[in-house]
Amino acid sequence: MSLLRVKDLSLSIGPTPILDRVSLEAGRGEILGIVGESGSGKSLTALSILNLLPRHSRLSGSVIFDDIKLTRLSDRALNDVRGDDIGMIFQEPMTALNPVKTIGAQVAETVLVHGKAGRGEAMAIARQTLDRVGLGAEEFPLSRYPHELSGGQRQRVGIAMAIALRPRLLIADEPTTALDVTNQAQVLDLLKDLVREDGMGLILITHDLAVVAEMADTVAVLKAGRVVESGPVRDVFRQMRDPYTRKLFSASAHVPARKAQQSARTLLEVEGLVRTYPKPKPAPWAPRAFKVALDGVSLSVAQGESVGLVGESGSGKSTLARAVLGLETAQAGEIAINGAPVRGPGDTAFATRRAMQMVFQDPYGSFNPRHTVERLVAEPLHLLGTEAPSGAERRRRIDTVLTQVGLLPADANKFIHEFSGGQRQRIAIARALIVEPSLIVLDEAVSALDVSIRAQILDLLAAISERIGVAYLFISHDLHVVRAVTDRVYVLKDGKVVESGATSEVFERPRHDYTRALIAAAPRLDAALKTRFGE
Questions:
Q1: Cα–Cα dist 333/273, whole Å
Q2: CATH 3.40.50.300 residue window(s) in the chain
Q3: Rounded to whole angstroms, how far apart are CA atoms 390 and 410?
Q4: Residues 331/356, Cβ–Cβ less than 8 Å
Q5: Which of 34, 57, 59 lies closest to 49, judged by CA?
Q6: Which of 487, 493, 484, 486 is nearest to 512 (CA)?
Q7: What is the DSSP string of 92-116?
């Protein structure tokens, strides 16, 4: 018997249609995967189930949860269902968590809001729930704040909030998108355990088909607000009756056509880099302790080469990127690009900074939403000093880089909210290209993109590298992407390089146990289907 039945669900926000007669079912002790590109309606399907919708929304159809028609309930009655009978895990834990409240208070809040216990008992339930998701009391007391936790740990707090009252249905919206492969594997194992132990239903929204192949019992494929294919995972992935399903399947394994670079000229040289941070004192009289973020790290990038940097959260990848870009000062070691030293925020010349640009994970968060694309893309031009173009030449350069990334010159007059996620990332790449850098650092630049958009961006990066010879330092937890787009790779663990070499050699014949663990933890669509179904 189905725990949740969604029948002919349609949604419009203002004049814009979003969902078109969506129907799906989730059973007790079963996992339903919902997949599709950005804008396909995955998240709004989940939000429609709980009626967590913006103003001017019009919802029709039926949502029946355990014989209760949710679409007929008032908002007050739905509040009794939200968090108690149906829990939800949101995609970005740092945004979903309150930064000024402790993790204990936030998990206990679910219990208190529903009046299930007093404050003391609610905090005890919070402690038990955090223990259950792997955040033990010794290292993770209830008094800790979200900013003191890693991304994977924050996601576990989000899961603890969602399961504190042991709901019968859990909705997880991209719960592992921002996590490295080992944290992702741990979170997915935790979700599977919750389904098995509590007999709850799980709706897993993701753009990662490999995760669905590993986890789900049934799958629904959404395109433009419509379910184009659904059924048992084995049947859908084996038959792929709809062309859109075949497109997603092909894009998930996409490898861009690119030529390995053979330049002998070293562009970036990092030698013996050390970076430490002071830890908070447990007491005013306690001695100061330090966390070693980078411990003698050395690496190099040749002109036009693509180099990967992989490792778990906290391994030192982002710290290394900030040091390379001159945004942090290392305590020891040397960094040079084109032979010029990179010394830190106040001591690195503009001409040196011009040689390096960065593309961030979240393009929307890295742009000022009040500025037009023209102004956003032109921001790095100040690094050119007196050589910065103006007037018609400035606009010509903006038009050129927008065209290089597959956008139109007319897009320069628009604002960033008018673009999709993939288009925003193209604009971020255009901003990096406008000063004609020698090196672009890409920090998880495709991790938040769905498989089709990711394939387009990877093709774009490969084409740009081949056309203008720019080098990439590609930081990612997606090992499939790193394997597809890099010539060499460095593996970081606890601030140290534990393995490096040609990408194909490292991935096919890893020497270090840590590298083998990373590769084993990475979900692979073909391997998952073969393991589960013998396909």
A1: 4
A2: 2-252, 266-355+437-533
A3: 18
A4: no
A5: 59
A6: 493
A7: -HHHHS-TTS-HHHHHHHHHHHTTS
- CATH class label, 2-252: alpha beta
Beta strands 306-310 and 226-232 are unpaired
Say how far apart CA 27 and CA 8 lie, in whole Å.
18
Rounded mean pLDDT of 317-346?
Answer: 88
Distances (CA, A) of 441 to 99, 476, 523: 29, 11, 25
DSSP 3-state percent helix, strand, coil across the chain (nearest 5): 40, 25, 35
Residues 258 and 275: their CA atoms lie apart, in Å, by 35
Please report the sign of the dihedral spanned by the C-alpha atoms of residue 350, residue 315, residue 104, residue 141.
negative
Q: How confident is the model at residue 9 (pLDDT cuts 50, 70, 90)?
A: very high
Answering whether pTM is above 0.90, one says no
| Residue closest to 221 by CA, chosen among 199, 202, 201, 243 | 243
Dig out the tokens for 125 from the structure.
């339930």
Distance CA 22, CA 62 (A): 10
**Domain 266-355+437-533 CATH superfamily:** P-loop containing nucleotide triphosphate hydrolases (3.40.50.300)
Scan for tokens 């194909």, then name that residue: 504
DSSP 420-439: -HHHHHHHHHHHHHTT--SE
Largest CA distance in the chain: 72
Tell me the pLDDT of the chain averaged across its residues. Answer: 87
Q: What are the beta bridge partners of residue 68?
A: 65
Angle formed by the axes of helices 243-252 and 451-468, nearest 10°:
50
Q: Within 13 Å of residue 131, how many CA atoms lie on the same side as its CB?
A: 8
Q: Would you call 37 exposed, middle or buried from its count of C-beta atoms within 10 A (0-12, 13-18, 19+)?
A: buried
Encoded tokens for 242: 């709809």
